[in-house]
Design a protein that fits this description.
Number of helices: 12
Distance between the termini: 52 Å
Order of helices and strands: HHHHEHEHEEHEHHEHHHE
Radius of gyration: 21 Å
CATH topology: Rossmann fold
Helix content: 40-55%
CATH superfamily: Vaccinia Virus protein VP39
Structural class: alpha/beta
Strand content: 15-25%
Bound molecules: S-adenosylmethionine
Largest sheet: 7 strands, mixed
Number of domains: 1
Length: 361
């Protein structure tokens, strides 16, 4: 990447650095989590104790997946070679958040408010009443969506699933909110037909191509008939790219492919939903400018915040990418600076796609 990037950025080498910052903070909450979660499996592995995990594994091994009309019933297969491998992986992935994680939580929080403002809501799924409803947030991250939903819908129960727990101030929060550490690609720790709404956002770079359908099948299993899912995912490439951005994205595509992720997932999701048995209600695109190039004032605001989140994303992934691509740190910084300018020059924008679907009654 070094040579190609350098060529692309040579013509702008003297460009000035853009230094803008905005911060968003979340007020600390101080309630204890004590909601009614009868709809979660008894054996749910909410702690790291070996007994808890063994119990959850034993229960999962005994449970047959329930079938729906379009789903083939396959006998349960052993998922890992050994229990040691299981614990080793858990120990690594269930580690406490690092400093980088906190920087990423900050970026995700900013993006959360951006999307909430642009969508004028935390969810587009129509809801007559949230009383006694259960919502699940898949890959909850810093937990902000789950936290806000629990706060707005006091009579609903909200559950955030993630391989890591959110930062402490979001953990001890509302009595109708609970977070569970779990791998979303394993069987979810809840019974069939227990959930009214499943929300998933920004997870495409954690779902391998081959995992999409299985994940949607698990969502189908835990949803009540008539229950909904809402997926909100960002295209991995930005639109209207300039030359440096284009070069950057070629490498990004290779990176996704090496990780067996699906760079073109947005063309595939509707088909997966239908194959699994969902009734697709709507697929809606949401384009958000990157930069202050729009004339319209609200879009300009969104563009400003979106550019900050893009900058933070590239900064947060810097070490990983320079190691991977073998480029000097100054080249990476310069490329990021150029990309920021290209967003303004070429009128770059991000495209989010929202899929809303129902499990038939
Ligand atoms: C990009 S963040 C998205 C967070 C949140 N959905 C949002 O939009 O703000 C991805 C999250 O998925 C979690 N994650 C990744 N792989 C996972 C897995 N296999 N099971 C559970 N969570 C996972 C990560 O820990 C991280 O919090």
């Amino acid at each position: 990447m070094g040579n190609q990037t350098s060529r692309a950025i040579d013509r702008k080498r003297e460009s000035r650095r853009i230094r803008r910052r905005s911060t968003v903070t979340l007020g600390a909450q101080s309630h204890t989590s004590q909601g009614n979660y009868n709809w979660i499996d008894e054996n749910t592995a909410t702690s790291l104790s070996a007994n808890g995990i063994n119990a959850a594994l034993a229960a999962a091994a005994q449970q047959q997946p329930s079938a729906h009309p379009n789903q083939q019933v396959v006998p349960p297969q052993p998922r890992r070679k050994s229990i040691t491998e299981f614990f080793t992986k858990r120990k690594l992935s269930f580690s406490r958040p690092t400093e980088e994680d906190y920087r990423e939580y900050d970026r995700l929080q900013r993006q959360h408010y951006l999307l909430k403002s642009a969508r004028k809501s935390n969810s587009w799924v129509p809801m007559e009443s949230s009383a006694d409803k259960t919502f699940v947030d898949v890959g909850t991250g810093n937990g902000i969506w789950a936290l806000e939903m629990a706060s707005q819908h006091a009579q609903a129960q909200v559950l955030g699933l993630d391989i890591r727990l959110p930062p402490e101030q979001n953990l001890a929060s509302m009595k109708n909110l609970r977070f569970i550490r779990t791998d979303i690609h394993e069987r979810w720790p809840m019974s069939d037909a227990a959930v009214d709404l499943i929300f998933q956002r920004n997870m495409a770079n954690h779902i391998k191509k081959e995992q999409w359908k299985t994940l949607l099948e698990e969502m189908y299993r835990v949803l009540k008939p008539g229950g909904s899912i809402e997926l909100l995912e960002l295209d991995p490439c930005h639109h209207n790219p300039g030359p440096v951005q284009k070069t950057f994205e070629e490498f990004s595509r290779t990176h996704w492919e090496e990780l067996e992720l699906d760079y073109d997932f947005s063309n595939a999701i509707k088909g997966y939903l239908e194959q699994v048995g969902f009734e697709v209600i709507e697929q809606r695109q949401l384009d958000i400018p990157i930069g202050e190039w729009p004339e319209e004032s609200e879009l300009k605001q969104f563009g400003f915040i979106n550019k900050e989140t893009q900058k933070a994303y590239l900064r947060n992934r810097k070490q990983e990418l320079i190691n991977k691509w073998g480029i000097p740190t100054e080249d990476y910084d310069l490329a990021v600076q150029e990309i920021m300018e290209e967003f303004e020059e070429y009128h770059g924008f991000s495209r989010f796609t929202c899929w809303m679907a129902k499990k038939p009654l």
